[in-house]
Amino acid sequence: MLNENYETTDGLDHSQVKQSNVVMKEWFSPESGAEGAEKAAASTTDYIRTRVREGSISRQILEPRKITNDEIQPSLSDDDPRYIGEIEADTPGGIVMPIGQRPTAWYFHGQRYEARFSRLATPRQMKDTAQLLTYKQDLRQVLSDANLKDLLYIEDTRFLRGVNTLLSWNGTTSTMASGVTLPSTGVIQWDQINDDVNPSSVTDSLTIMNRSNFGLDNATAVVNLNFAKQFMKWGRDEFGGNLAEEVKKNGFTEREFMGVRWIVTIKNWLVPDGVVFYFGPQKFIGESLVLEDATMHVRKDASMIEFWSYMMVAQVIVNSAAVARCDFLQAGWGSGALGS
């Protein structure tokens, strides 16, 4: 469900949602209660599913934080809502000085970042209420769940595209390729390893984030399902214990391994084969802000109903030192590219 938040134009009282699309038809009629959708009814699942829809990747990296209207700031250039956050103030470091002298002065100041909000939405979905009577499945439940996953997919796409853009920024433009020395850190944080997935190569990839002098280490890794299956080739010696047996039996799923939390996604069009994204602790990366929770808007016009889902969010990566990417080039994999 879309966080059980529904918005209607009927202004009707609450009613009990029953287990059929007959009631879905009644739900959109003036005689029934549209707000009854806040309590989803149990319904038949006697239908064939065509695709797997996954939850959010980015929200496992940056836990969303709900903000209020009072925290919104205006802009001098347009009317879009913004949030202004603050960055840890830096220091000039210590020095050795002669006894009896005063140190030189250093005027300190803080830094800020701006997070701009975007409204993510699904297309309007329309149906004649009479045609709802021909379905056994609860279309409202099916579509609302799918709509939420579609919104999260857009959010993940924007987030990972932003990571790739940041890691390939040469000071003028983004090359969307590895091997770029970042002006902000002075090191390469999107690199390649001409090897397959083995203990030595994975260990080497874990050192990419440590190249800068910011002192950050990997907290989370994101790989796709095909990458995770490469761990099934490892034996007891590679894993260093009974984990080899568990992975052989159950596959490599989300777990703590090599000091890092590994997230496995089916979205190989966003996380290509042979690619691992590394992220530092959340408090060193940035923010994920929610101004409007996912909401379903419902409208009825005579015998036609239409509804769509939307939310307003902002994600910002403030610290480029807290992200890294490694491409493993062997085992038949290319470096990959972010899907559209």
Please tell me about this protein's structure.
This protein is an alpha/beta fold. The protein has one domain (6-48, 57-62, 116-328). 19% of the residues lie in helices and 25% in strands. The protein has helices at residues 21-27, 58-61, 139-167, 199-205, 225-229, 236-239, 243-250, and strands at residues 6-8, 65-66, 82-87, 111-116, 118-121, 125-128, 190-193, 220-224, 255-257, 260-265, 275-279, 286-301, 304-317, 323-328. The longest helix is centred in the middle third of the chain and has 29 residues, at 139-167. The relative contact order is 0.20. Residues 1-44 and 334-340 have low confidence and may be disordered.
Supply the key terms.
340 residues, alpha/beta, six-stranded mixed beta sheet, 19% helix, flat, disordered N terminus, disordered C terminus
Sequence stretches where pLDDT stays below 50 over 5 or more residues = 1-44, 334-340
Would you count the extended β strands for me?
Answer: 14
Helix and strand composition category: alpha/beta
Please trace the helix and strand order, writing H or E for each element: EHHEEEEEHEHEHHHEEEEEE
* Overall pLDDT level: 83
